[in-house]
TrEMBL record:
Keyword list, A-Z: Signal
UniProt xrefs under PROSITE patterns: PROKAR_LIPOPROTEIN
Residue stretches spanning the membrane: none
Secretion signal span: 1-18
Span of domain Lipocalin-like: 34-125
A Pfam family it matches: Lipocalin_4
The protein's name in its UniProt record: Lipocalin-like domain-containing protein
Organism of derivation: Flavobacterium defluvii
Top-level taxonomic group: Bacteria
Length: 138
């Protein structure tokens, strides 16, 4: 009876060990959900191998911060506050994520960015054409 219990415990342990080991197929891709509303925080580029980021000049003083909203339905909404009354202009389009690439399409114009960082608090994108880095916070 003891030998059956020992075999059972050994088999159970091996099964748990085998299921805890997995093949990492995401090749550095983050598993944080992309959908959400992100406030524009900083922009910049890489100069001499160093990131140089400044507060986003697109955010008008005295207004709420501009934003990017990515919905579960793959709709993208860009919110821009401007003018003395901080009027909100929303532009709608779509987005597609492929691994660590994010493509946002507004009308006939698409931009492809590398997702440099995605956490519960931050989305950092680098435009593949211009090299401009944009940091959004939740």
């Amino acid at each position: 009876m003891k030998s059956k219990n020992i075999l059972f415990v050994l088999a159970l342990s091996l099964g748990m060990f085998a299921t805890s080991c997995s093949n990492d197929d995401n090749e550095g891709e983050t598993i944080i959900p992309l959908a959400g509303k992100y406030n524009l925080s900083q922009t910049g580029t890489i100069v001499n191998g160093q990131e140089v980021l400044v507060d986003a000049p697109q955010n008008q003083s005295g207004c709420s911060r501009d934003y990017l909203e990515l919905k579960l339905s793959n709709a993208a909404v860009i919110g821009d506050y401007n003018g003395e009354s901080c009027a909100l202009t929303q532009t709608e389009g779509t987005y597609v994520r492929s691994h660590n690439d994010l493509t946002i399409t507004i009308g006939n114009t698409s931009s492809v960015s590398d997702i440099m960082n995605l956490t519960n608090k931050e989305l950092k994108l680098k435009d593949k054409t211009t090299g401009v880095i944009t940091v959004y916070t939740r």
